[in-house]
Amino acid sequence: MTILVVTGTGTEVGKTVTTAAIAAAAIAAGRSVAVLKPAQTGVTAGEHGDADEVARLAGAVTAVELARYPEPLAPATAARRTRRPGVGAREAAGAARRLASAHDLVLVEGAGGLLVRFDASGGTLADTARLLAAPVVLVASAGLGTLNTTALTAEALRSRGLAPLGVVVGSWPDDPDLASRCNLADLPQAAGAPLLGALPGGAGAYDPALFRAAAPGWLAPELGGDWDGPGFAAAWAPHPWTGRDVTAPVPGPGNRGPRSGAGHGQ
């Protein structure tokens, strides 16, 4: 693939660190990479933006922004409040094509979720992906509530003639709860697309050299890595429902388990 669009089920789900991991894996494979941020919000001139963060973590990346706005708002709203034009979907698609002419891989990272408006005309990242006929990576959170937002985003893609390439968990916790562990099996069903990666929580704070070395191990081969999705999901799979409190030890040799009636619905 030449152009890949990275979106999320919402804000703060790990889009930027996922974009950086995909870039790092591609660079490790000898590919030239550009990252395009059509609209950067919440930073002022001279501050570190998302494209800069991808370059910091991944290394030799061509980082491009088309516009930046100081307030942390949706791009169309941030542009309106500064009385400046927003970034149209066609403008973003044109910039991606130009970068693709000189790079092996172009990563287009959205702002917020898939249907956040870029400009006053209502253009979105979904419109940009449609113009580019580009595959879309969907970054999702791990825990409770992620299945609905993932299913809605995937449905929005398909209604526009697009399909998610797959789902990446943008921040996998050190100590995942039951919902997170179950979601490894349920997210592909919600998206109708495979699970293509899981980044460890706090990966964005890793030393860049460590991040670059580890990134391929967080991503499936479809994204340039060697992560074993089925194996990862199987390793974290919860025990089948037994009718007991799922946090209680299962009785076995040397472990009698909780006493009957001790706070287990008795």
Descriptive tags:
9 helices; 9 strands; 266 residues; alpha/beta; two-stranded parallel ribbon; seven-stranded parallel sheet
Structure characterization notes:
It is a single chain. The chain contains 9 helices and 9 strands. It is α/β, with parallel strands linked by helices and about 270 residues long. The chain has a 7-stranded parallel sheet with strand order 4-2-6-1-7-8-9, with helices on both faces. The chain is globular and about 60 Å long. The N and C termini lie far apart (about 55 Å). The relative contact order is 0.16. Mean pLDDT is about 90; it is low at about 245-265.
H and E order: EHEEHEEHHEHEHEHEHH
Radius of gyration equals 20 Å
| Class derived from helix and strand content | alpha/beta
The helix fraction, in percent, is: 25-40%
CA(first)-CA(last) distance: 57 Å
Quickly describe the structure:
This protein has nine helices and nine strands.
Lay out the secondary structure:
Elements: E1 3-8, H1 15-28, E2 33-37, E3 40-41, H2 50-58, E4 61-65, E5 68-69, H3 75-81, H4 89-100, E6 105-109, H5 125-132, E7 136-140, H6 146-159, E8 164-172, H7 178-191, E9 195-200, H8 208-214, H9 229-236
Helix pairs in contact: 1-2, 4-5, 6-7
